[in-house]
Amino acid sequence: MIELNVSFFIQAVNFLILLFVLNLVLYRPILRVLEERRKKTAGARDQVESVEEQGAELMASYEADLAVARSEARGRYQEHRAKAVAEAEAIVAQAKEKAEAELARHAAELDRRRQALIQELAASEAALAQEIANKALGRAV
């Protein structure tokens, strides 16, 4: 059994003094270091969250600017394409007109030659008929 005598009280006082000294020397500094570490960690987390938010905002801004730039580029492309198509159509129309004029000129030239040949044949028709008749009959007509 436990006897309550003076040594028990001395041991209890000794224990309380040791507890007080350890609290001053060991527990409080350790708790203070742990609290500082917790604060630093929390601060670092806050900074990370802040940086992530800024990064997300920058990314959203970048994507919005990129979308605007793509839209502008698409508009410019369509504009230049329409202009090029119009120029190509104008060139084709001009070439078509030139070809039609050339065709009309050649048709007129052919018609003029045909008429000249018809007149030439009409002029020599009597002589050719006389010559064919002479050859067919074998005598002069």
How would you characterize this protein structure?
This protein is mostly helical. Helix content is 94%, strand content 0%. The mean pLDDT is 92.
The description of the largest β-sheet is: none
Question: What amount of the residues lies in strands?
Answer: under 5%
Low-confidence stretches: none
Rg over CA atoms: 58 Å
Beta-strand segment tally: 0
Index terms:
single chain, mainly alpha, about 140 residues
SSE arrangement:
Elements: H1 6-137
What can be said about this structure in brief?
With 141 residues, this protein is an all-alpha fold. Helix content is 94%, strand content 0%.
